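hey
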């Protein structure tokens, strides 16, 4: 394991030296939230949007922590490596309590951890396969919580069926991927499910909607039924670490022509320019 520098509770130290207590509520209960913030050319991408979502997640789990953007930036900046595409993983848990008890402890200091990892370029030439699975997760999917067992089991099931991602279906409608948001091109309109408690409000999702609007690509935030998804000419999965992934096979059947679609090519070019600050 590479012994890179990480941040833990006010200190920078080698990964191998970063330790937390077994009584940390993140470890015992998954009682914490996180962010995954990409960085290109040494600059954190959409930092304010990620921090706003972090603050929303903290407020939702009633964890009081009042760091401003500058304080978060100061924590993350020393972890970045100039030039490479990378991402910061930032996690805040409720901290270490004196004993294991589900209810919040009265006095506790949050645990704050951050590390940087390279973004491994993803090969999109042929697109990926996805499988639809029942969305078995909880009711609070808008919180970016570390409590990810539902997502973990669904992603693993997708991998075991030879697919890159699970597209989750709730009451006949697609919500999102196990670790991504979804877009579909249906009758030449780019559609993504609206922001509700059933999906994580993805930052990549917002960038794509804004790029579509600015470039005369018809886009709508609307529900997508499983039947509509099966007839879509394109399906994409979006996230901070994989950007925009075209799905060319859904449940063993080709999506549209079975090739990466033309709208994806347009959006991919727009997104690449935007992330490098070229547009
Ligand atoms: N996950 N939905 C879920 C359930 C996710 O886990 C993610 C990202 C997204 C996309 O959000 P964004 O565009 O802000 O990355 C949607 C991250 C990458 C992860 O857990 O590693």
């Amino acid at each position: 394991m590479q012994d890179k520098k990480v941040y833990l509770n006010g200190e920078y130290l080698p990964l191998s030296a970063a330790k937390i207590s077994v009584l940390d509520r993140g470890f015992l209960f998954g009682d914490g939230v996180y962010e995954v913030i990409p960085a290109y050319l040494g600059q954190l991408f959409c930092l304010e949007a990620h921090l706003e979502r972090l603050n929303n997640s903290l407020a939702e789990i009633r964890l009081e922590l009042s760091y401003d953007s500058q304080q978060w930036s100061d924590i993350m900046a020393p972890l970045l490596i100039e030039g490479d595409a990378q991402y910061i993983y930032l996690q805040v848990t409720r901290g270490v309590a004196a004993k294991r008890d589900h209810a919040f402890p009265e006095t506790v200091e949050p645990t704050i951890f951050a590390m940087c990892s390279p973004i491994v370029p993803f090969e999109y030439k042929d697109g990926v396969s996805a499988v639809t699975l029942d969305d078995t997760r909880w009711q609070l999917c808008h919180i970016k919580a570390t409590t990810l067992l539902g997502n973990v089991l669904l992603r693993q099931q997708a991998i075991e069926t030879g697919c890159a991602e699970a597209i989750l279906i709730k009451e006949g409608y697609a919500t999102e991927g196990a670790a991504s948001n979804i877009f579909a091109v249906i009758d030449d309109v780019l559609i993504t499910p609206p922001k509700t408690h059933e999906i994580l409000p993805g930052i990549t999702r917002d960038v794509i909607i804004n790029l579509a609007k600015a470039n005369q690509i018809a886009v709508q935030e609307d529900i997508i039924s499983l039947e509509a998804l099966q007839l879509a000419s394109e399906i994409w999965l979006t996230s901070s670490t994989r950007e925009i992934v075209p799905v060319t096979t859904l449940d063993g059947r080709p999506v549209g022509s079975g090739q990466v679609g033309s709208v994806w090519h347009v959006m991919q070019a727009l997104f690449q320019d935007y992330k490098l600050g070229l547009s």
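The pocket of N-(5'-phosphopyridoxyl)-D-alanine is lined by residues 36, 151, 176, 179-181, 200, 202-205, 238-241 (CB under 6 Å). The first strand starts at residue 5 and ends at 8.
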